[in-house]
Amino acid sequence: MGIGRVLNAELCGAPAGPANLITDVPGVMVGHVTLVSGEGDHAVRTGVTAVVPPGDCFVDKLPAAACVSNGFGKSMGLVQVRELGSLETPILLTNTLSCGSCFEALVRHALDGHPAIGVTTSTVNPVVLECNDGPINDIRALSVTPEHGLDAIRGASSTFEEGAIGAGTGMTCFGLKGGIGSASRTVDVDGRRFVVGVLCLTNFGSLECLRVAGASVGRELARRAGNGVPAGAARDSGSIVTVLATDLPADSRQLGRMARRVTVGIARCGGYVGNGSGEIVVAFSTANRISHWAAEDGTGTPAIDRVDRLSDNVMDDCFRAVAAASEDAIVSSLLHARTTTGRTGRPTPGLRDAALAAEIGLPVGAGED
User: Fold this and answer.
1) Catalytic (active site) residue 122
2) Annotated catalytic residue, options 206, 239, 252, 326
3) Which of 41, 42, 203, 290 falls 20 to 30 Å from 83 in CA-CA distance?
4) Which of 162, 208, 279, 327 is catalytic?
5) Residues near 82 by Cβ (< 8 Å), separated by ≥ 6?
6) What is the pLDDT of residues 85-113, one digit of tens each?
7) CB-count burial class (<10 Å; 0-12, 13-18, 19+) for 358
8) Is 237 a known active-site residue?
9) Has 333 been annotated as catalytic?
10) Strand ranges (E), the chain
11) Quick one: DSSP state of residue 117?
């Protein structure tokens, strides 16, 4: 889990959810499939991570939005999410060259549950997010299969690991070992408590820019390493993809506004949205589901429905929650990820393995489960 209020209390004083994970949003689940085999040029260090919303996403779609800060990426399904403002499948995260396998997994998942798809009703819009794990993983091996994507969905639960796991197995962040990180913040509206949850796949940043809890951790690590700074740490040429979930009754427009605030968390960690980095967010709400069958003959589902509506007057609290949870999730991905040796034979050091936490100002115990 993320490290919580100790990290960014000045930005957002709201408490984290019970687990400080995206799954604090009721009904949201996360699953991983991790693939590790071989050494040297044929080292496989990759996988799939599934974010699974509650209920049947195809029949009762979720209000959703997609935000692209820098579009150096190969994500799938964003065009329709942005056009229609809805999500109708789980979201799979994987490596860049495995998007096709995960697309097929989501198609098969939808077809298995809905015989009408492509016959008497529309097709389905799978959403896949990716980062390039090629520096660690033999990405050309195309190790991820559709079955791995299905297994990640089937294995999803409210508790899950962070760090070098699932889609994060081969990722590099700020020249260190990156991967999966997650965090949450709560928002009180009209006497009710809601949750904003974030899950990041971190594969971006240059080492000397890394900041943790306001401390120039990366600059100090780079100074100590001297000529031994990890290869590729000088340029921001990776990506960070993020899934944002909430049970707030936010519409697609508001979710898009919230999604854009993930960039605040990225910047607070030292990211500057580099030329070759893909900063992409998909956000969804579990409130105000959208019926697939509305106004269809014989279903009895009305074309006009009534929903709760979040006021823009409380969006500042939502923005602060998103920014804080995003920063927390990025740092959590670094603190959970352990040193990994992959395709090049050179170890990519985990942050906790590369430095003495207390000595350089990291919160003691941060990242421990």
Assistant:
1) no
2) 239
3) 203
4) 279
5) 65, 66
6) 999 999 999 999 999 999 999 999 999 99
7) exposed
8) no
9) no
10) 29-37, 44-52, 60-71, 86-87, 91-95, 127-131, 172-173, 176-177, 179-189, 192-203, 239-246, 278-285, 290-291, 340-341, 347-348
11) B
